[in-house]
Amino acid sequence: MRILLISSAYNSLTQRVHVELADRRHEVSVELALSEEVMREAVRRFDPDLIIAPMLTRAIPDDIWSALPCFIVHPGPVGDRGPSSLDWAIMGGAGRWGVTVLQANAEMDAGDIWASVEFPVPRCSKGSLYRNEVADAALEAVLLAVTRFETGRYRPEPLDYSRPGVSGRLRPPCRQEHRRIDWQADPMSVVLAKLQAADSSPGVLDVIGGDEYFLFGGHEEDQLRGRPGTLVARRGGAVCRATVDGAVWIPQLRRRPAPDGPLTFKLPATLALGGVAAGVPEVDAPLVLPPGRRTYREISYREAVGVGYLQFSFPGGAMSTDQCRRLLAAYRHARSRPVRVIVLGGSRDLFSNGIHLNVIEAAADPAEESWRNINAIDDLVQAILSTTDQLTVAALAGNAAAGGLMLALAADEVWCRAGAVLNPHYRLMGLHGSEYWTYTLPRRVGAQEAARLTEACLPVSPTSALRSGLVDRVIRGSATSYHFQVITVAEQLARHPGHETRLAAKARRLAEVENDRPLASYRAEELAIMRRNFSDPGEPYAELRRAFVYKQKPARTPARLARHHADPVLSGA
């Protein structure tokens, strides 16, 4: 079928729906809902059989939905309506939630229902929930709805609140007055729910040191205490704030801009606070914690049955210079341990998106900070590539992009959860890229496919990545079961009788590579281009970075997504 995706942004869910429909050989084109006229023009040019809106913050014009079937993906169970569905679910402590695919009509979220899928709600942030359980359920519901539509025989069910099982209701927008934290009265559980429901947008508006900030992310702390509302510790850029019965860690802040002042963007909390956080004690967390401890750590390590698990989870998947250096130190620790396999990656959600553009933008000299950041991540990649006494595995629980995905390719094996979306390219940020990708990517997929992936600038599904050799294993199942499946396969790898033979072959290959063309030469060549990308006035990187950091809306849908603009046959030209 010819399917047009209309979305307010080309976000992770839209990307996932895009690649999964394309994998099933549908003709898919994407249009950003920048205006009603843009949507109308996309429909005229593409002439779709079906329109799907994976993420939409504005209504589809009635002349479109009255002429063509338009499926709206709503992140709520049957009957749920309103723009803040997940926010209310998290703050209300819902144990189960759902995603509903309904047909657009004159009343928002009240159209006939084509499919609905429920899921359990884990204790996590809204962003993590959206990229995992919500995305899994949304894809299942979309594919079911598309199959039902293709048959031509299925009749969608009208929304009927008197029908058993219709548990949702119309909910108002969740505003800052609903999110406000009373530090003198709210227990830690309530504070966490408010913080997690506002992450990654819009944040919780609050006051620290006399200034207003939006707070992002919330993690429990089980030992530190203090006067409610005060900052009691800092760690790795995050700050710990006391509640009436405990404390919570807050990784990121965004200063509220003045009415006529410059725009602001998210930063690590200590960086956003500046001098306000200077007197707050730094409290380090060891890589290995006793069982049962609950605290915030970006990096942790544990080992079992010959496997070392180096877990990391950075807000938004971005890795600053400091984060890369701390992860490298942790990796060196893992290398020093008597383990046969090292597994890198978090137990759920994002793997990595590469260098930290927000921290770079905030630096006194963004070009120099870019240079420090790329060298820091290159140092980490070099350490992984040169490991010959252990097998290494990059286990991608979620999305990976740009330098973060190329970081994964440094490992001997790349495993990927079926729900992830991969973006193996840099060009949209005006960068050539480093992380030794000119060595690792062609080695995996061949020179021709490497060129296609990096130039097309399109997302890749795990199924497609497995077919091309970009990844070695796709792990199917829920975000919860993924963690246990990784453990099972990693232990099998560590116990494999051919382990020593494989290590010897690995060492021989590395020696042959170094003899033919040293790895350092790949890095030097990549960084020579990156230095120009970072510093030359004529390069687009600085402008593209600012647009990304400040979340500027594009003027039009990129041609790589809107096939109806790029293809003269599709556009009728």
> What is the number of beta strands?
24
Q: Assign an overall shape.
A: globular
Radius of gyration: 24 Å
Task: Say what oligomer this is.
Answer: single chain
Percent range for helical residues?
Answer: 25-40%
**Integer average pLDDT:** 96
Q: Helical segment tally?
A: 21
- Please mark out the parts with pLDDT under 50 across 5 or more consecutive residues, or reply none: 568-573
Distance between the termini: 21 Å
Strand content: 15-25%
Largest sheet properties: 6 strands, mixed
Major beta sheet, strand line-up: 2-1-3-4-5-6
* Class by SSE composition: alpha/beta
Give me some keywords for this one.
single chain; 573 residues; 6-stranded mixed sheet; disordered C terminus
How would you characterize the overall build of this protein?
The chain is of the alpha/beta class and 573 residues long. It contains 21 helices and 24 strands. A six-stranded mixed β-sheet has the order 2-1-3-4-5-6, sandwiched between helices. A hairpin with a 2-residue loop joins strand 15 (299-304) and strand 16. The model is unreliable at 568-573 (pLDDT under 50).
